Amino acid sequence: MSMRPLTVLFAGGGTAGHLLPAMATEEQLHAMLSGSVFDQLNAIYLATKSGAELPLLKKAHATFRLVPKTDFPRKLNGDLLSFLPRLIIAVVKTRKTIKSLHVDVVVGFGGYVALPAYCAAKLAKTPLVIHEANALPGLANRVGKWMATQAFSNFSIPEWNDAPAIGLPIRQSIADISKLNVSQREECKSAARAHFGLEPNRKTMLIFGGSLGAAKVNEVIAQALDEIVARGFQILHAVGAGNSLPLRSEGYHPVPYIDQMDQAFLAADLVVARSGAGTCAEIEASALPAVLIPLPIGNGEQLLNA
Fold first, then answer.
1. The pTM is what?
2. What angle (nearest 5°) sits at the alpha carbon of residue 15, between those of residues 10 and 17?
3. Domain ranges for the chain
């Protein structure tokens, strides 16, 4: 049997919430190739220079190609006037990538890099698979669904009756948390708290606002910090890499960003977070109680996710 590599172009960027399901899908594809007609997986990601996905891709030593940011402005301004030229440039560059690397399939998860990838796949006559993570689809995936060879969703979406709801791909390290028994989980909790420099036997609150942080959540936590600590909690707080880092104090452990979210979930007794689709899926897999604070802007998808 002739063997050849499977080349997949992943399109999901702008935030880690669009990228991480793509990386989780790559992780599972590597495991699934054994016994197939493909001898290896070649994964390529699309990214933007200013997107939250770029540092994550670099840290993972992933192969990526840069394209212009093609977010559609919600207000009448200069970005609106430049949207179409940026989109055309991104489509042309992505189509060249598809052709030059002999991409077998484009897999999209929405976000700033998705729409040009969808258009390029259509022009190149390359199979396109898309996945919508949120309860309310974003613009790129609403357009992409009509170009897609196959569409999937996380939640059941009324207008997407032909798109099977399959849940959301998450990192295997987080999915594995649900497989731990009580004694294993307690042992892992102790190790995770030690990893973050937390007290081993103190109730722990994990707070984060997604890959970019949440300035409003940070502000409220700063105001409520003394009260939370007085109630016996210690706090592990990911404030976001782009936000100023507060001073560390007794019971309060601020960090810019948490790479090992599996360890953070294992350390926690309670989560306070935004309600992005990836966050909701990972909290559910971790079987933790949570206080969800939907982002009040965008399409309103976070309120529906929660």
1. 0.87
2. 75
3. 4-160, 172-305
